[in-house]
């Protein structure tokens, strides 16, 4: 793959990233029956969209990428970018606080591939470790908020607030369409609420809710505790008044403050939302960190996102899995009320473990220390005659400095401290875990004040009397040894990329290289407040600009926003842009969104969120969009047609040959084309959606561009547009360089601190490397399709019998003939040491396999061997040798405990169960639990840590 003339003996990064070496690539090509990767591309992709290489051999759009750097060169460049940033003392607050990440958590979670390379826990039997960690997260949230059910997790505080709004709207079934929002909430939260409310027809009335609910009919109210100004308000009366008038109340609550002050649930609030950032997760220039959403149990089934629950396995032992999965957006489609898919799992795990490591008393002590520092600042200010506006605060002190706010800000900056200028007369200062006495003295000096001898005269704030985090999970792991072992024990239960390929179709589980990950924990990137002055972050801004230019080139678009912090949010932002474009041109009746039946569930959910009406376009028997149906629907809705959302290559894993024609039909009717770019791993360097008909696309940097899945997040879902949509890209009220049009994430650049991963990937691959990766990914998928087709028919192929980067294996005939289901095969793969492919998406009864370019031929062959051996097992069920309800497939996965028993009463041997291809096949991974009964868990919903006795 590499340029051999440069350094014949030292492999370049591209050779480390791409699994198959040149000899293996030859094997792939021979099996497929083509003579070169380029011939494969020419056969698989429609000629009309395949970009020819330029005269000097570069793919169009990639000319401006610098030549591939080595790992050490790329890291040196990142180091230089980092060094140009300034790590200030951040006292800005506004939802982002410095935090002291315990090194044991940084090293063993954030920097540990066993945690960060894991996939979303859809196969719960081999995901018990992270499911337990997420259950701990949910318990932290419910205990600290005083509510009963919490999910795991939300994308950030602002979007959690928006979900709280729509949840209350659904739950209050009355006609009220108005939400009351307190004036003292964060500006970014207010901006996201406004963006979300508008297309749904929700009206927002902003008022000082200390005066009570304004006149009128409301379905809900949103307040914050503490408020954006630092003020602590007792909202009990408001809650009572709201309930009397049939409205619900959601409280944005700081979880550290909630260790000291009465939590939302105890004043009767129905919903709590917020972030867990300050529980050990660096600010990261805005993200990623885990937002949270908690509700009273009567609203549990309204909760969006993923909810971890407790159930039982085949032996009746407790086991964790995702609960209420039928509510998930991929099933609800256009009835969906939220589009959240990828969440913030890795960061939720960090926050949960931070709580376990500190325990309830540790958290209380940290909170008390933070509060004491804030009191010390208030006392010093008061002593110097500076007015402290609110006398009940937790960590943030609001000072009135008439006409002097800018002067104070500058004086603090001179001392290396960033404070928050609320307006020309007010400055606020937020304390956190990292605030020291020296910082208190320095910030006081910026006001011309000095530390006072006595305490601040304001009242005590501590009024929480209830206990929290009493479960042993929050007391057992208080030493580093025990925490290290706990994290190892949990990780050992899971199959992540550090143990096996994860052949998940549509999810591109490729290598997340160590060199790509290295920079994200550097403090110059990690300890940046998203609203810090731009002069603090020239390196990050340079990195963002590089990425914007590289990614627009790769996709053929004109502009891109990195704000969306998941693919779903990119879709939502892209559809908002389309709607704004139509409306601004006076074309206001366009509300129909055409979506092929094969689409990812987030597509329809996003369309519903921008108020579009979803019209489903049929697929032909070969999986392609049915052009006749498309033309009919375009004609039927012509002047109401807003957009078509089409995934390319399709979620069926093929390059549809009609894509250009499809786009043209939509454009001719005045519609816009949204190309879902989650499958860009099949396009980079070969074709550009912005050039073959797309007006807008989102990309998933956590798929194609190497950001790890983290067990279900973080993600980055940039939205890229042609020039005519550029004015409608996401903006932010607190970023001067962005518009203030739509705000989709709480931070201007979303999950900025993980952008170095994608930067490093592109920087180290270079134009030729990126193109090679795509070609090998396609070759590997086609190789698997050829090897497995005779055992499991490949459902869809393109014109020359080729698939794209993934293939769908059809088990429906097998199931009909033998009774063996996709579930059986998926669980049996765990016995063979593999993670299952995507199950029953986009077609029920099938498995979708995506090997990516990173898997070696040996690993791909082992997977194929396992699948072929499983087919032989299926045949034994089919022939009656094994009964359909007692065979190694139905019994899978097999735990060691279930085999190490004296009486074995099954028609297959224990060795067949555990070592179906012999002991030398590959390292044995023992599943910790047997098959989990999902329905039982849904009937008996338990979403926080179960009592220890349950495991006796
Ligand atoms: C993964 C995926 C999405 C959603 O992305 P998230 O980051 O999970 O929100 C949308 N469309 C397709 C085709 C995908 O594969």
TrEMBL record:
Modified residues (N6-(pyridoxal phosphate)lysine): 703
UniProt-listed CDD domains: GDC-P (cd00613)
Domain Glycine cleavage system P-protein N-terminal: residue ranges: 15-447, 471-732
Transmembrane segments: none
This protein's record includes keyword Zinc: no
Listed EC numbers: 1.4.4.2
Residues of the Glycine dehydrogenase C-terminal domain: 773-894
Keyword terms, alphabetized: Oxidoreductase, Pyridoxal phosphate
Pfam families the record matches: GcvP2_C, GDC-P
GO biological process: glycine decarboxylation via glycine cleavage system
EC main group: oxidoreductase
Cofactor requirements of the protein: pyridoxal 5'-phosphate
Gene Ontology cellular component list: cytosol; glycine cleavage complex
Family per similarity comment: Belongs to the GcvP family.
Alphabetical list of HAMAP family matching this protein: GcvP (MF_00711)
Assembly description: The glycine cleavage system is composed of four proteins: P, T, L and H.
The protein's role, per its UniProt record: The glycine cleavage system catalyzes the degradation of glycine. The P protein binds the alpha-amino group of glycine through its pyridoxal phosphate cofactor; CO(2) is released and the remaining methylamine moiety is then transferred to the lipoamide cofactor of the H protein.
Protein name: Glycine dehydrogenase (decarboxylating)
Organism: Mycolicibacterium parafortuitum (Mycobacterium parafortuitum)
């Amino acid at each position: 793959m590499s340029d051999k003339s440069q350094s014949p003996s030292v492999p370049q990064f591209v050779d480390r990233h791409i699994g198959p070496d040149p000899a293996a690539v030859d094997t792939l090509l021979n099996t497929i029956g083509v003579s070169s990767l380029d011939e494969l591309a020419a056969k698989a992709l429609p000629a009309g969209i395949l970009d020819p290489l330029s005269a000097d051999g570069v793919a169009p759009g990639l000319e401006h990428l610098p030549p591939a750097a080595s790992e050490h060169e790329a890291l040196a460049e990142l180091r230089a970018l980092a060094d140009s940033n300034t790590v200030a003392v951040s006292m800005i607050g506004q939802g982002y606080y410095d935090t002291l990440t315990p090194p044991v958590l940084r090293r063993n979670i954030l920097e540990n591939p066993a945690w960060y390379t894991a996939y979303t826990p859809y196969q719960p039997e081999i995901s018990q470790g992270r499911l337990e960690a997420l259950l701990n997260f949910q318990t932290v949230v419910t205990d600290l908020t005083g509510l009963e059910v919490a999910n795991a997790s939300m994308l950030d505080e602002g979007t959690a607030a928006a979900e709280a709004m729509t949840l209350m709207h659904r739950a209050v079934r009355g006609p009220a369409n108005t939400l009351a929002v307190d004036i003292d909430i964060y500006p970014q939260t207010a901006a996201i609420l406004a963006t979300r409310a508008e297309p749904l027809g929700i009206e927002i009335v902003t008022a000082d809710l200390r005066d009570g609910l304004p006149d009128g009919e409301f379905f809900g109210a949103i307040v914050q505790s503490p408020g954006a100004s630092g003020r602590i308000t007792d909202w009990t009366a408001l809650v009572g008044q709201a309930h009397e008038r049939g409205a619900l109340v959601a409280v944005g609550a700081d979880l550290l403050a909630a260790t000291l002050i009465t939590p939302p649930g105890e004043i009767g609030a129905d919903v709590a939302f917020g972030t867990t950032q300050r529980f050990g997760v660096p600010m990261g220039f805005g993200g990623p960190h885990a937002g949270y959403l908690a509700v009273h149990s009567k609203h549990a089934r309204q909760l969006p996102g993923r909810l971890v629950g407790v159930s039982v396995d085949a032996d009746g032992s407790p086991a964790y899995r995702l609960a209420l999965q039928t509510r998930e957006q991929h099933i609800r489609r256009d009835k969906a009320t939220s589009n959240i898919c990828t969440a913030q799992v890795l960061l939720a795990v960090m926050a949960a473990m931070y709580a376990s490591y500190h325990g309830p008393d540790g958290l209380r002590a940290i909170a008390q220390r933070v509060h004491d520092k804030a009191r010390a600042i208030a006392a010093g200010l008061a002593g110097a005659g500076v007015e402290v506006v609110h006398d009940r605060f937790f960590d943030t002190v609001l000072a009135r400095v008439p006409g002097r706010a800018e002067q104070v800000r500058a004086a603090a900056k001179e001392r290396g401290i960033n404070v928050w200028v609320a307006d020309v007369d007010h400055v606020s200062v937020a304390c956190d875990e990292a605030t020291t006495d020296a910082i208190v003295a320095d910030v006081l000096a910026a006001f011309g004040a000095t530390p006072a001898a006595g305490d601040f005269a304001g009242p005590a704030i501590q009024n929480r009397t209830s206990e929290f985090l009493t479960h042993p999970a929050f007391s057992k792991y208080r030493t580093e040894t025990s925490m290290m072992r706990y994290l190892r024990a949990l990780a050992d239960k899971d199959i992540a990329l550090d143990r096996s390929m994860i052949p998940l179709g549509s999810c591109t589980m490729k290598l997340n290289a160590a060199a790509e990950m290295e920079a994200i924990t550097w403090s110059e990137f990690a300890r940046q407040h998203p609203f810090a002055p731009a002069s603090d972050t020239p390196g990050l801004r340079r990195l963002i600009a590089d990425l914007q230019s590289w990614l627009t080139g790769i996709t053929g678009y004109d502009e891109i926003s990195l704000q969306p912090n998941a693919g779903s949010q990119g879709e939502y932002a892209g559809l908002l842009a389309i709607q704004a474009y139509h409306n601004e041109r006076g074309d206001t009746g366009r509300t129909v969104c055409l979506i092929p039946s094969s689409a990812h569930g987030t597509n329809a959910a996003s369309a519903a969120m921008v108020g579009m009406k979803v019209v489903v376009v049929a697929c032909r028997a070969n999986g392609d969009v049915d052009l006749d149906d498309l033309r009919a629907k375009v004609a039927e809705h012509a002047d109401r047609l807003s957009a078509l959302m089409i995934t390319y290559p399709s979620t069926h894993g093929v390059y549809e040959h009609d894509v250009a024609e499809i786009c043209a039909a939509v454009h001719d009717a005045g519609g816009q084309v949204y190309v879902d770019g989650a499958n860009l791993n099949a396009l980079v360097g070969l074709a550009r959606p912005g050039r073959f008909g797309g007006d807008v696309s989102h990309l998933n940097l956590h798929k194609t561009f190497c950001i790890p899945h983290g067990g279900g997040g973080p993600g980055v879902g940039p939205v890229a547009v042609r020039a005519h949509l550029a004015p409608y890209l996401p903006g932010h009220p607190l970023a001067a360089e962005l518009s203030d049009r739509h705000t989709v994430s709480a931070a201007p650049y979303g999950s900025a601190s993980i952008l170095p991963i994608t930067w490093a990937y592109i920087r180290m691959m270079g134009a030729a490397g990126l193109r090679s990766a795509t070609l090998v990914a396609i070759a590997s998928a086609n190789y698997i399709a050829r090897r497995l087709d005779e055992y499991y028919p490949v459902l869809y192929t393109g014109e020359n019998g080729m698939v794209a980067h993934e293939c769908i294996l059809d088990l429906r005939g097998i199931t009909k003939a033998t009774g063996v289901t996709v579930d059986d095969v998926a669980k049996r793969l765990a016995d063979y040491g593999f993670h299952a492919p995507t199950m029953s998406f986009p077609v029920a009864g099938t498995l979708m396999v995506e090997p990516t370019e990173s898997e070696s031929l040996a690993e791909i062959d082992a997977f194929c061997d396992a699948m072929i051996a499983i087919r032989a097992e299926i045949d034994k069920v089919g022939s009656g040798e094994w009964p359909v309800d007692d065979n190694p497939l139905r019994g899978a996965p097999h735990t060691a405990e279930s085999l190490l028993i004296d009486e074995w009463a099954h028609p297959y041997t224990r060795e067949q169960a555990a070592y179906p291809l012999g002991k030398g096949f590959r390292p044995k991974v023992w599943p910790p639990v047997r098959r989990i009964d999902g329905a039982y868990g849904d009937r008996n919903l338990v979403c926080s840590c179960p009592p220890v006795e349950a495991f006796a």
